[in-house]
Amino acid sequence: MTCDIVERLAFTGNLSDEELLALLQTDSFDEILFAKADEKRREIYGTDVYLRGLIEFTNYCRNNCYYCGIRKGNRSVERYRMTSEEILAACEKGYEMGYRTFVLQGGENPYFSDDKICHIVSEIRRNFPDCAITLSIGEKSRESYLRYFEAGANRYLLRHETASEEHYGKLHPPELSLENRKRCLFDLKEIGYQVGAGFMVGSPYQKTSDLLADLRFLQQLQPEMLGCHRRG
Fold this sequence. Notes:
Elements: H1 2-12, H2 17-24, H3 30-45, E1 53-58, H4 84-96, E2 101-106, H5 114-127, E3 132-136, H6 142-151, E4 155-157, H7 165-171, H8 178-191, E5 194-201, H9 208-221, E6 225-230
Parallel strand pairs: 1-2, 2-3, 3-4, 4-5, 5-6
């Protein structure tokens, strides 16, 4: 029966909640799922490998997400932030090595104002016009996202982490909300970014129904990129 479910998933791209839960609650059919996923990957991408130049330019963060190693409350972290000159030098070195996508990733660091981010992005765009510029710097206002886009950024990574309100509340302090995280993702899509979302698997308090909520949210959002990472 579950093999039939996998075949239907491959053919239609969708299943009922009950069918998805049946697949999520066992690893007995992982092999056929992996095979179908690989078949789809080869259909779309072939066997090419795409490299991204990841620049972790700051590990300061104003938030205190309970699962995060660079959360504000972690006093054992040695904090740093790169200068714009250091970031551009990293892009120069990456470009020489053949990278054509640069990902600027960091905590939500108030030091990097919108003006600073726009300056860095515009300089990367000016110096490397044939490269994609991806930002991964957390929750911002729609106006901020629009400024970064107009400066030259064209991709944005923002994992939603969990699409369950109850689960989100157990992983984040009260000042953060799933509603705002979703608002950010839909703002990014509407502005015109290629958007990356994603969620954790195996995080504390997680239930199978939470994973179902993640899959349904991603169907609604339709991101261009999706990252799933395992915790615990």
